[in-house]
């Protein structure tokens, strides 16, 4: 038995019945969300590279295992505190392993895991997309803020 009060007017259907997903953007059900979800593949990828300096740190680790001092030399403007925090976050995300060698001083080597190495394609694509955006906007910045030191309003 159907109740008139529960029926949809003609032409109005439930949103999931009429929504057409772009198969390239959303190839699977995990991405068919209406809000950010922790298990959405896009959110997982963005979380993996989130944080200031993270992409540069990943870039340097793509070249192979590196020690803390070596990473400091490769990224001289990165403070030891932030470097430590980023490495800790990457370890917590399962993207980096750490190996400590005995001795004085203790030598520490950081290396990307298989999951960390899998980010290479994402970093390459982010770089290419950034270059393309810069060429389209005719600017060297796409965030809308003036370059540091530029006081023009």
UniProtKB/TrEMBL annotation:
Gene3D superfamilies with a match to the protein in the record: Winged helix-like DNA-binding domain superfamily/Winged helix DNA-binding domain
Superkingdom of this protein's organism: Bacteria
Recorded coiled-coil stretches: none
GO MF terms held by the record: DNA binding
InterPro entries associated with the record: ArsR-like_HTH, HTH_HxlR, WH-like_DNA-bd_sf, WH_DNA-bd_sf
Sorted UniProt keywords: DNA-binding, Transcription, Transcription regulation
HTH hxlR-type domain: residues covered: 40-138
SUPFAM superfamilies xref list: Winged helix' DNA-binding domain (SSF46785)
Spans traversing the lipid bilayer: none
The protein's name: Helix-turn-helix transcriptional regulator
Organism: Streptomyces xanthii
């Amino acid at each position: 038995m159907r109740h008139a009060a529960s029926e949809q007017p003609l032409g109005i259907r439930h949103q999931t019945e009429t929504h057409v997903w772009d198969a390239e953007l959303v190839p699977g059900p995990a991405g068919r969300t209406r809000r950010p979800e922790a298990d959405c593949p896009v959110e997982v990828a963005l979380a993996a590279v989130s944080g200031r300096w993270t992409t540069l740190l990943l870039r340097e680790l793509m070249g192979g295992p590196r020690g803390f001092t070596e990473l400091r030399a490769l990224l001289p403007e990165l403070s030891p505190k932030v470097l430590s925090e980023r490495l800790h976050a990457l370890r917590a995300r399962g993207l980096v392993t750490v190996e400590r060698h005995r001795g004085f001083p203790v030598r520490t080597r950081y290396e990307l895991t298989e999951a960390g190495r899998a980010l290479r394609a994402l970093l390459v694509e982010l770089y290419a997309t950034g270059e393309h955006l810069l060429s389209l906007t005719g600017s060297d910045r796409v965030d809308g803020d003036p370059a540091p030191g530029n006081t023009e309003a």
